[in-house]
Amino acid sequence: MSKPEVRETSRLDKGVYTTGEVAEICNLSQQTIIRCFDSGQLKGFRVPGSRFRRIPRESLYRFMKENNIRRLPVVDRGKLVGIVTQHDLLLASPSPATSLSIYELNYLLAKMKVKEVMKRDPVTVTPDTPFEEALRIGQEKKIGSFPVVDEAGNLVGITTESDIVRVLTRVLGLREEGSRITIEGLGQKLGELQKLISILDEHKTALLSMITVPRPEKGDWMIVLRLLTKRPEPIVRDLRKANFNVTYCA
Questions:
Q1: Most buried of the four, 40, 72, 188, 196, by CB within 10 Å?
Q2: Class of 179-249 per CATH?
Q3: What CATH number is given for 123-171 in this structure?
Q4: For the segment 56-79, what is each residue's pLDDT rounded down to a tens digit?
């Protein structure tokens, strides 16, 4: 993806925001932002002589921190140009031990631009990237979030490690009440898996998930089964009769 020019038009470069802009930045509804403002959770002021609300940038940053909004993609005319995180903002902010007055601090914050602290050319994924691939990239790059862009480089969303974990939780059937069985010492023959599945069929037990873990040091495989049953003991008994090395059941 080509690198677009970074302009001064990023929403995060402003000093004061409308409730609509805050809603867009935080990915919340404008009604939610208004309720937070009216309850005092989001600090700001009203435009004199009107009902319009305005939120200073430092109040927006504080609101993001308090509500665990830790990452924001930076766009220019719909194109992704960078990403700024809560950690980036903290590094760019004056130290609490500073000798600057509150007026000097506010002046520095008002002059600070997002382009000065954002990370350029962040690692991205597409809407069609498999979640396991995103997880692998995150582990390799040591990053916990990915802007999602289409083929034209337009930002269409953002996904985080928490989103990936939620998908894995659903895929592995961890929200379902069930049992876990661990089998070690499997070879690489398809017949072993066929025999295993046939035993589950005999017990009319649904297989929620199956994870295969290669063990190169032993030249075999370990399999972890998640089954939709609260009584795995009869299944374990038949697996052992079929010479499967069941090492864990719960």
A1: 72
A2: alpha beta
A3: 3.10.580.10
A4: 877 887 887 777 777 777 777 778
